[in-house]
Amino acid sequence: MAAHMTPEEFRRYGRQVVDWIADYQEKIGSYPVLSQARPGDVLASLPAHPPEKGEGFEAVLADLDRVVMPGITHWQHPSFFAYFPTGASGPSILGDLLSAGLGVQGMLWATSPACTELETRVLDWFAELLGLPDRFRSDGPGGGVIQDSASGAALAAVIAALHRADGGAAGRDGIARRHTLYVSSQTHSSLEKAARIAGIGAANVRVVGVDPVTLAMDPAHLDALLAEDAAAGALPVMVCATVGTTSTTAVDPVPAIGEVCRRHGVWLHVDAAYAGVAAVCPELRDVNDGVAEYADSYATNPHKWLLTNFDCTAMWVADRGPLVSALSILPEYLRNRASDSGEVIDYRDWQVPLGRRFRALKLWSVIRWYGAEGLREHVRTGVRLAAGLASRIAADPAFVLLEEPRLGLVCFRPRWDGLDGAEADRATLRVMERLNASGDLYLTHTKVGGRVLLRVAIGAAGTTDAHVDAAWRRIREETAALS
Amino acid sequence: MAAHMTPEEFRRYGRQVVDWIADYQEKIGSYPVLSQARPGDVLASLPAHPPEKGEGFEAVLADLDRVVMPGITHWQHPSFFAYFPTGASGPSILGDLLSAGLGVQGMLWATSPACTELETRVLDWFAELLGLPDRFRSDGPGGGVIQDSASGAALAAVIAALHRADGGAAGRDGIARRHTLYVSSQTHSSLEKAARIAGIGAANVRVVGVDPVTLAMDPAHLDALLAEDAAAGALPVMVCATVGTTSTTAVDPVPAIGEVCRRHGVWLHVDAAYAGVAAVCPELRDVNDGVAEYADSYATNPHKWLLTNFDCTAMWVADRGPLVSALSILPEYLRNRASDSGEVIDYRDWQVPLGRRFRALKLWSVIRWYGAEGLREHVRTGVRLAAGLASRIAADPAFVLLEEPRLGLVCFRPRWDGLDGAEADRATLRVMERLNASGDLYLTHTKVGGRVLLRVAIGAAGTTDAHVDAAWRRIREETAALS
């Protein structure tokens, strides 16, 4: 019989791994944020062939430090300001560990009722915490579900919207006419990806204009495009409004967009991947204005700003009918009495994959550990730190601030007096690369109006004033060095 | 500041969770395999509203026993014989815990080089362990990637195949003509789901006939359908051959199917979700006959029979070009020097979602803990137990065995002398329901040739002769009780 790890061995190695993680948490600030590895470094330090005989778990732990850690970019580092944060926290890690330990697969209600019903309840809780509308709750025609990512949620929304728009014709017979999808230049790339995957095609993703200052979608232009496309015989499938764009956290005017969608009978998906969770704070709840009245589907990521480790996207639909109709197939080997009764939810019909992990455990652990108060406090810390950094940037004549941030992202650039636009952009990117190469902090960039901006996204659990102060000092140093 | 769990608290609660899981492993055999919960039971025992204040982790652990456990169907129970096994093992759980503890997001090489390069190396190892062809290795034009599920791999294969078939036209302009996909009646439902999602449509999933005894796809019928469809102006996108069907572990004749695909220039995807991993044993390697010569893409699930907890599907492509071309989009905020250099793999372009967890850690832990020897031994144990059960069924005049199993699944039914087909099927389902309701074991059913069969799938780490003996005794008891 294969040498399975015994429960006693699991206890021993499990403690070692827990201690290893706690040690890592204690010293994470001492690592360079961005991995200093060059392409191929990690690969070259791993054996070319798998072991013939088992090696024991000490060998794995030893290689973790020797091989893996030099190739880690530390997303939980308090000076990680790149992209958006990817949450993690003690309760989330332990919730995830419980999920792995139970090892259940919740494709159907019957294959672990708790995996389904805890998810249902936690998503109802989470809707309440964010002030989302009752029609997203599971006791009506809608409901919530955990998806792998905002990309997965966007694809699911497209599939549901398509099903509603054509009565299931494309799912049955294939796409046979031009279908269109509406985004702005600021919408996340996952929407174009979803359009390609769904057979709609990138060229039929219509790019609605944005306000040049706020970068918010122009509802009048959306209206005109929808009318034009319908008149030309296309089938408009879905509009995606964004609450907190990836580039700059711009917020599309959901109420006005929703009115347009309603008039044209088009599905409105709201992608609030980053910003939606900010609504745990009543004073930020207006980011979701219009969602209650108009959104057919909505997604936000506890795995970004809300202390839950990847993957955990919360998605709600106002009517689960089109989603389930589009994705449900019942082969004989999945038939069971509970599903046949219609009394239960089978979440496999709400997502692309069949199988599913027990992800509700980690979101449940996070909500219970922090409570609503603790979650609000975490978001407010990020908002306060971002505002503080922004005010220093605004006060410094060597820098240009894009705008006062409302959330945790600050966009800005060095002014570079005397350089033309292209020269200035190259200099800004050099500052970023020098900062990232130093290992002191990690930030990324975007482009607005053709100009490169630096992005500082604040939201890791360990980030404090001191880390933001140090980041600002280093940014000024590297900028001065190139001026 | 929000009350984050300190490293010291993480040590304390982490040990409690590790001990909780070890305790669970020790007593798992004492639980009813199938949850006895009725719809709504778990929901009703959870508070209607989220907590305002944080509750501490003891509260979560207490509710785990009180609320969650009664709603668990124990997939790791040694008497779990339903569906296919969903693997778990100590090293896998700990590898997953390391992934959660590191909390990195590996969408790009740069966002954690080790997350990408360890995956690359481990997939090369795994291809070697299974005797898969060199052209799947990452040092050529192909390569391996971890997907969330065989469903996700199937969708990715469809997208890549479509891209190759039409030069990217559908991804660009949308599907504008009839596209077709080829499966058999025994192919997993995820292929129809992928066809719906990809805009091909369920009606364009062509069902190739099967041999009535072996249930293997008929290559001559496939050939005829491909010719017919192409002559009618359709664009054949992909053929899916299955190695180990979900219903009965039938194996399609990949070499003959591959010849047909090659003649018609159609992408061949091999779905070996369950059976593919059996190839760790040289004596079972012929399940993958033809894969080396003909498969454009191939998927098998370590998270089924190979002791790795969900989700972990290993997928390989012979040429990564069409997959990456179909799924790659590069917005400014994801641009980085490493990606621009072309020297690195960005696995985000190999999958539907953008974000990705560090799943290679758990597969690496499993391979190193067990070694090739231990993995073979685990598969051989399942094969031996299945063969033993099958021989007893074959020797019992009250039962009909479908066929001698080569892998870990045994399909059979009570003979029910004197009952007509429909009556016999109802009686067989009643036996199954009584067995499942007893909590002693959990098995599921399928239909072959219009008749209900029971499925006993063996493969949990803890399953021994005693568990299979007990299952067989209980099956005979319940059958006798209804005879």
From TrEMBL, chains A, B:
Keywords: Decarboxylase, Lyase, Pyridoxal phosphate. GO terms for biological process: amino acid metabolic process; carboxylic acid metabolic process. GO terms for cellular component: cytoplasm. GO terms for molecular function: aromatic-L-amino-acid decarboxylase activity; pyridoxal phosphate binding. SUPFAM superfamilies: PLP-dependent transferases. Its cofactor is pyridoxal 5'-phosphate. InterPro entries: Aromatic_deC (IPR010977), PyrdxlP-dep_de-COase (IPR002129), PyrdxlP-dep_Trfase (IPR015424), PyrdxlP-dep_Trfase_major (IPR015421), PyrdxlP-dep_Trfase_small (IPR015422). The keyword Transferase does not apply. The keyword Lyase applies. It holds the Pfam family Pyridoxal_deC. Belongs to the group II decarboxylase family. This is Aromatic-L-amino-acid decarboxylase.
